Please model this.
Amino acid sequence: MKAIIFNLLAWVMLPIMDGFAKYLSADLPVLQITWARYFFTVAFTLPFMFFFFRKNLVWTEKPKLQFIRGLILLTANICFFYAISVISLAKALTLAFVAPLIVTAFSPVFLGEKVGFRRWSAVIIGFIGSLVVIRPGFVEINLASFAALGTGIMYGFYLIITRKLSTSDNPLLTLLLTGVVGAVIISCVMPFVWVQPTTSQWSMMAAIGVFACIGHLFLILSLKYADASKLAPFSYFEIVTNIIIGYYFFSDFPDSWTFLGLAIIVISGIYIYQREQSINKTT
Model:
């Protein structure tokens, strides 16, 4: 029960971070908001690890893979923050939910896993769900929708690399290194895009880092009490918090097509998860 509670709390905290990012995007560059997410996350995570998990502060066994992982997540964050600056939180997150489908589609190539006809069918149906949300040819296609879809694709590859790293590096070390890689890279761009924030904006920029840090901490705590595979379906709870924040603070409520596409993507993702579980039990 503790694992489920911690996991659900994570999916409450992380959309709050997205809400702050969307609000700030009206006045600040997306790259600067992304920088705040990384800088303040590292600023809060590093002291926490130093005092409580100092033994995990060792050098990684796979530095190149850690760098690639950090770069991919940074790209995903930039795409997502851009997406939510233009379209609703719910629509952006719905399109980003294609990540589990990407993991299934590319796991045979990168992880050597076998994917049968049923799971391939679920991937195709899930992609159709994303097309239902975008509705090409029926509504105006914008770059933000493709950025949200790109977030899901990037995050899928991020999850694949995370699987590969799970056998060598400690999860807390991986979390910190991912933040450091992103912070260093995005900091190099800041002199070219920086807009001086107000005191209120500085507070919200710091809040993005705080909620990102707390959200990932809850995720780590949930994984302490249960396997990641058992908690995977609960990640879809994020859409509930996302819709509430979008409606209450931005007057955005998903239309029926977005809900239909979301349902198709979620059902496909859960089916893939159940198939993986049943296959694991028989092997």
Summary: Residues 2-282 form one domain. The mean pLDDT is 82.
